[in-house]
C-alpha cells in the first residue's frame, strides 16, 4: 500500500479514493496507481506503508473505521442468509438495497458513514454502497486475521 496526500483542491473523488481537505491522506494499492494520482497534480506520494502487519493494520484502520458499517441501535439487525443457500452475502445485500427507494438508500448510507455526494441514480447508489460494504468487510477480515 502506498500513502498519498491531497495537495491541490478541497477534495478529490473517483471510483477508488476519496480525499478531502480535512482527511487529505489516503492509501492506494500500489506505486503505479500512486504515480497516476500524482500525475493528476492533485496528489503527492508520501511513501509505502510497508508490508508488516502493524503498518498494514494502521493503514486499514485509518481508511475503514471499525464502526463504519455498524447499524444504528434503533435499526433491527438484518436477517442472515440461511446456510446452504446459493445466495452469496453480496447478493443478499444487493437485494436488500434494491428494495429501497433512493431516499432510503441515502439514509442507509449516511447511517453507515458512506458518502453519496454526487450520486442520484438508484443503481449508482446500490453499486457504491455494496462496494464500500465489501471494502469494509475485507478490511475487518484482514484485521482479524481471517
Give an overview of the whole structure.
This protein is of the alpha+beta class and 146 residues long. 43% of the residues lie in helices and 14% in strands. It has five helices and five strands; from the N terminus they run ββββαβαααα. Helix 4 runs parallel beside helix 5. The longest helix is centred in the C-terminal third of the chain and has 23 residues. It is globular, with a radius of gyration of 17 Å.
Q: So how many helices? A: 5
Helix content: 40-55%
Mean pLDDT: 79
- Amino-to-carboxy terminus distance: 19 Å
Please summarize the sheet with the most strands.
3 strands, antiparallel
Element-level helix/strand string: EEEEHEHHHH
- The amount of beta strand, in percent, is 5-15%
In what order do the strands lie side by side in the largest sheet? 4-1-5
Morphology? globular
> How many beta-strand runs?
5
What gyration radius follows from the Cα positions, in whole Å?
17 Å
SS content category: alpha+beta
pLDDT below 50 for ≥5 consecutive residues: which ranges? Answer: 81-87
Describe the structure concisely for a colleague.
With 146 residues, the chain is α+β, with helices and mostly antiparallel strands. Helix content is 43%, strand content 14%.
Please tag this protein with its features:
single chain, globular, 43% helix, 146 residues, alpha+beta, 3-stranded antiparallel beta sheet
